[in-house]
Design a protein that fits this description.
single chain, alpha+beta, 9-stranded mixed β-sheet, 6-stranded mixed β-sheet, 5 helices, 15 strands, about 25% helix, globular
């Protein structure tokens, strides 16, 4: 139906009862095609987001140090045309410093250098899935329209990670789509992730991966259309080539559009009302910050389950 994502099967990991989309569909999940760069987190709830971010950063940094599939620490640079104030996230990253003038691309006078984890989702997601299987999970695939459709499985608890579909499944009117469009190009040898959140043509970032670069992007609140916009593709290429001139002749490999699950505040909480007789732990509404806060949210969700 117009105004809502197409209904898709959800995976049921037996025992715990983890409700999540069965596959990284571009209509439901951003992770499979996104850059996976640890970025400034969503606005709230502020104290919990800060804790989730710090926990997730250290977890991903540890995975990078252990050479986990798809995870590495990435040299990064934030660019500015005017002298910026010290960013609030300066203490949340590693090796923070002012960029040297010779590190800046043409047209930029200021920048900050730092290191953050970068996660290549096409490699990392299978790694996570294998951990679920190794833990003894039993997968059941079925189409559900509401949480009550799961009652016959008699779970002890449901962990609701339905993302954008949570609005329909649990009747949450605060969930909304945040449309994002990225462009994949061949990597000419870049190793530094670069971004300019105030580019005149729109936010711009270049995330180099092993076999390509992810260029972005857009944050279109309330937009459901997942058709790639050719004009936006051209704009993304133009602004990102200003950030990284070495991309000038890079082959365009494709354009990806995804819908991030937005919400005024990330929802991680225990709910005993939505599914009578079965407790539900909600974990959704991360917007474009799933990588930034995801592990911290997962640990808090697990702690809530442990209290039952």
């Amino acid at each position: 139906a117009r105004g809502s994502p197409a209904r898709a099967p959800f995976g049921w990991w037996g025992g715990l009862g983890l409700l999540a989309p069965r596959a990284p569909s571009p209509r439901l999940l951003r992770s499979g095609g996104g850059g996976g760069w640890v970025a400034p987190p969503p606005p709230g709830p502020a104290d919990r987001v800060r804790a989730w971010s710090e926990t997730t950063f250290e977890h991903l940094a540890g995975l990078a140090a252990a050479d986990a599939p798809g995870v590495r620490m990435c040299a990064s640079m934030a660019l500015y045309r005017e002298e910026p104030a010290m960013p609030a996230w300066a203490r949340s990253v590693r090796s923070f410093r002012a960029a040297d003038r010779n590190e800046l691309p043409p047209g930029y006078r200021f920048g900050f250098r730092f290191e953050v984890p970068l996660v290549e989702m096409p490699t990392y997601l299978p790694f996570l899935s294998a951990q679920v299987d190794a833990g003894g999970a039993r997968r059941v695939l079925r189409t559900v329209a509401r949480l009550g459709d799961l009652a016959d499985l008699a779970p002890d608890v449901v962990v609701n990670c339905a993302g954008l579909r949570a609005a329909e499944l649990v009747g949450d009117p605060e969930v909304y789509p945040i449309r994002g469009q990225i462009v994949r190009v061949a990597n000419p040898g870049l190793s530094v992730s670069v971004r300019d959140e105030a580019h005149p043509l729109g936010r711009a970032y270049v995330h180099p991966r092993a076999n390509d670069c992810v260029l972005g992007g857009s944050l279109d609140t309330g937009e459901w259309d997942t058709t790639p916009n050719p004009d936006l593709t051209r704009s993304i290429l133009r602004r990102c080539r200003e950030l990284a001139p070495a991309l000038a002749d890079s082959e365009v490999l494709g354009t990806v559009v995804g819908l991030r699950p937005g919400r005024r505040e990330v929802r991680v909480e225990l709910d005993t009302t939505v599914l009578p007789g079965i407790p539900v732990v909600h974990n959704y509404g991360h917007g474009g910050s799933g990588i930034t806060i995801g592990h911290g949210c997962a640990l808090e969700s697990a702690a809530l389950v442990a209290t039952l």
